[in-house]
Amino acid sequence: MLYLSAIPIVYFFFSLIMLNREARLTKYQSQLLQIMFLWLLIAVVEIAVAGNMAPHRVITYAPPLAYFISHFILLIRRKWIAELLLWGFAAGIVTVAYLARYDKIDSIDYQKFTSIKLMLPR
Questions:
Q1: What is the rounded CA–CA span in Å between residue 2 and residue 47?
Q2: How many domains does one find in the chain?
Q3: Which of 65, 70, 103, 115 is 20 to 30 A away from residue 79, measured at CA?
């Protein structure tokens, strides 16, 4: 799962740097930033407590990552750079998914994602 989400994670780290460096936020925006960061921390704790990283558990990461990545792109002053980063983000996600689907990336194994272990009562 880490390889599949590598591009959003890289954009997330760049957004944290950009938000700390250049963001002049209103009080409401800064409160929203804190809530999204708290949401992300709770999602990390949820994965740590659950123990296994399954695709359906990653959905809790989607809203805060979307918030941070969109703020990162909106803070870029030059429109062509922001546009280029947005297209690179979309193309990167599609490319990684395509390469993983057709076994071009050896470290991604879809069989591990689909093997479900059920705990049935005896």
A1: 13
A2: 1
A3: 65
pLDDT by residue (tens digit) across 85-108?
Answer: 889 888 988 888 888 777 777 666
Please give the helix or strand (H or E) that residue 10 lies within, else none: helix 6-22
Q: What are the pLDDT digits (tens) for 3-12?
A: 677 778 788 8
- The Cα 2–Cα 9 span in angstroms is 9
Number of alpha carbons in the 13 Å side-chain half-sphere of residue 39: 17
- The whole domain housing 45 covers 6-111
Dihedral class, residue 58 (left if φ above 0, else alpha if ψ from -120 to 50, else beta):
alpha
CB 53 within 8 A of CB 47: yes
Tokens of 57: 């558990």
Q: What is the pLDDT of residues 18-41, one digit of tens each?
A: 777 766 778 888 888 889 889 989
